[in-house]
């Protein structure tokens, strides 16, 4: 089943991915671009409750005879982002944390990752991860985008508080 297949993929990582044949087999099992985007984001936000916790992977395997209508129906594992309340230095020393270093050394509070370690043994994957992080810095997580998003959230929160107050005003005034 799925658990056996996932464990097979992890075993492949434990054996190392520097050999091109092993790496190709790994790539047939995992959407590497998706995984490296996911890792870049987790590292950038300094999620302290990951990678040993709070990760979700999914895949879709088309049934026999089913028409494949999406590139995501290829049976590869993909990772989705969720549960990041320990991010952005909320409970720690923030940008000084050296998240990736701690993950690779096995000293990260949430544990290490055999997948990250195995992939980063390859120069091409180190370069790809570095490029993903730089893309985040220059794009979604640029100062301008982050500040604009925070302002939107702040305005939304203000409206929500007033709407809640207005709806509960009679109860408060009684």
What can be said about this structure in brief?
This protein is 55% helix and 3% strand.
Descriptive overview:
With 174 residues, this protein is mostly helical. The chain has helices at 2-14, 20-29, 32-44, 99-105, 114-119, 123-138, 143-173; strands at 56-58, 78-80. α3 (32-44) crosses α6. The model has no long low-confidence stretch (mean pLDDT 84).
Mean pLDDT: 84
Roughly what percent helix? 55-70%
Q: What share of the residues does DSSP label as strand, in percent? A: under 5%
Rounded Rg: 21 Å
Please count the beta strands (DSSP E, at least 2 residues each).
2
Helices and strands in order:
Elements: H1 2-14, H2 20-29, H3 32-44, E1 56-58, E2 78-80, H4 99-105, H5 114-119, H6 123-138, H7 143-173
Antiparallel strand pairs: 1-2
For the structure shown, list the relevant keywords.
mainly alpha; two-stranded antiparallel sheet; 174 residues; 2 strands; 3% strand
């Amino acid at each position: 089943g799925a658990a056996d297949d996932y464990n097979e993929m992890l075993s492949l990582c434990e054996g190392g991915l520097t050999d091109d044949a092993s790496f190709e087999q790994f790539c047939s099992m995992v959407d590497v671009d998706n995984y490296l985007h996911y890792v870049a984001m987790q590292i950038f936000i300094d999620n302290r409750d990951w990678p040993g916790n709070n990760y979700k992977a999914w895949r879709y395997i088309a049934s026999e005879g089913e028409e494949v209508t999406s590139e995501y129906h290829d049976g590869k594992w993909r990772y989705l982002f969720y549960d990041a309340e320990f991010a952005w230095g909320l409970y720690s020393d923030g940008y000084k944390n050296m998240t990736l270093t701690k993950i690779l050394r096995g000293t990260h509070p949430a544990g290490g990752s055999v997948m990250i370690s195995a992939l980063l043994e390859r120069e091409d994957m180190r370069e790809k991860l570095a490029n993903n992080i730089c893309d985040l810095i220059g794009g979604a997580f640029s100062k301008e985008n982050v500040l604009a998003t925070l302002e939107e959230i702040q305005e939304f929160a203000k409206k929500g508080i007033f709407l809640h107050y207005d709806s509960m005003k009679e109860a408060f005034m009684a």
